[in-house]
Specification:
seven-stranded mixed sheet; 5 helices; 7 strands; Rossmann fold; globular
């Protein structure tokens, strides 16, 4: 499916991408209410997965703390009439832990599920709509976005269009 590669020069660029992701989720709200949305976030420790989710949640209106769910496994939010579930499966030793935790029922209509370390639940998770791979480079982060479903492709198209628009004071692609 479709891909988009970006260079995130600094924290402001990550925040810009998070804001575009939030605008995209809001713009595709009807489809998400009907089918749900799964966002897979891969990358090494410190690559910016939680920072991207935090920026997205802030842009969706979340004003409370947005912390990494590394120890709790799940941080739930209600934003823009959507349930937003932020997962972190770093501590999973086996994909069966996903099923045993009872998380499967949270993936579906009306829910956005952002999953850090999805490879730790490989085979148990639904196909992500959009996969984001972050990697640290000498100057910033490399970000590869890959659409895996038609909804993911629609979201990627919105993100691409928004990224290509000039943004005052932000780092570009």
């Amino acid at each position: 499916m479709a891909t988009l590669e970006l260079h995130l020069a600094d924290e402001r660029a990550t925040e810009r991408l998070g804001t575009l992701l939030a605008q995209t989720l809001f713009g595709e709200r009807a489809a998400i209410e009907a089918a749900g949305f799964t966002l897979a976030l891969t990358g090494d420790l410190g690559a910016g997965k939680t920072a991207l989710v935090r920026a997205c949640l802030r842009a969706l209106g979340e004003r409370g703390p947005v912390k990494s769910p590394t120890f709790s496994l799940l941080e739930p939010y209600v934003v823009s009439s959507l349930n937003f579930y932020h997962f972190d499966f770093y501590r999973f030793a086996d994909p069966e832990e996903f099923s045993a935790a009872g998380f499967r029922e949270l993936f579906g209509p009306g829910n956005v599920c952002a999953v850090e370390w999805p490879e730790r639940a490989r085979g148990a998770l639904p196909t992500p709509d959009l996969e984001v791979t972050l990697s640290v480079e000498d100057r910033g982060r490399r970000c590869l976005l890959e659409a895996r479903t038609p909804l993911g492709a629609a979201c990627l198209q919105r993100i691409r269009a928004g990224w290509l628009e000039p943004a005052a004071g932000s780092a570009g692609a």
